[in-house]
């Protein structure tokens, strides 16, 4: 029998642009995020492959007492490559220019990784017990998973920009549509 999944999504904490290492502020953000996730009962933690997500996850994991698991699906990529035909005319040029400006290594594998992320992180879970799991990722994936949960147009991921270490919570109950319980919540960051 399936059970409800609670998915806690967080963009990585603040990092240096040059090397991707967390800043001092970013380390404080990660610890605060970990404390918040511990209070929520999170017991599974996934993170993207880049340094800023891995470092954030290690600090969060210390607070949770969990082992972080590296997940390529939680990487930094464009989850959906919109076509002009699906875009409102007044936004088409801006959205297409933005997506075209992304590096090829973020664009080309993006849709396939996004599909794998849906399979791995969304929907109800098998078993009798609710699951509370967190994914430390990047803003594009957070925005896209919110769009999918709300059945919003796929291109809208380009318009959502969660803050560093902000928390987004999605719920996937069996037999019911997904819910967005929180988006871009920074209350734990003080």
TrEMBL record:
Pfam families given in the database record: His_Phos_1
Single GO MF descriptor: hydrolase activity
Origin superkingdom: Bacteria
Gene3D superfamilies listed in its UniProt record: Phosphoglycerate mutase-like
Keyword Hydrolase: yes
Keywords: Hydrolase
UniProt protein name: Phosphoglycerate mutase
Taxon lineage: Bacteria, Bacillati, Actinomycetota, Actinomycetes, Streptosporangiales
């Amino acid at each position: 029998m399936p059970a409800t999944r609670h998915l806690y999504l967080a963009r990585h904490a603040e990092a240096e642009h040059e090397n991707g290492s967390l800043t001092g502020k970013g380390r404080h953000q990660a610890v605060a995020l970990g404390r918040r996730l511990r209070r929520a009962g999170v017991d599974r933690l996934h993170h993207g492959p880049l340094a800023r997500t891995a470092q954030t996850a290690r600090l969060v994991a210390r607070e949770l007492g969990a082992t972080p698991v590296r997940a390529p699906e939680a990487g930094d990529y464009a989850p959906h490559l919109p076509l002009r035909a699906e875009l409102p005319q007044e936004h088409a040029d801006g959205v297409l220019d933005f997506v075209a400006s992304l590096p090829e290594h973020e664009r080309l594998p993006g849709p396939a990784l996004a599909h794998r992320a849906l399979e791995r992180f969304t929907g109800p879970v098998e078993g009798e017990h609710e699951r509370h799991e967190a994914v430390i990722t990047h803003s594009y994936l957070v925005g896209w998973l919110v769009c999918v949960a709300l059945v919003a147009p796929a291109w809208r991921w380009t318009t959502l920009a969660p803050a560093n270490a902000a928390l987004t919570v999605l719920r996937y109950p069996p037999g019911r549509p997904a819910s967005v319980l929180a988006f871009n919540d920074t209350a734990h960051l003080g």
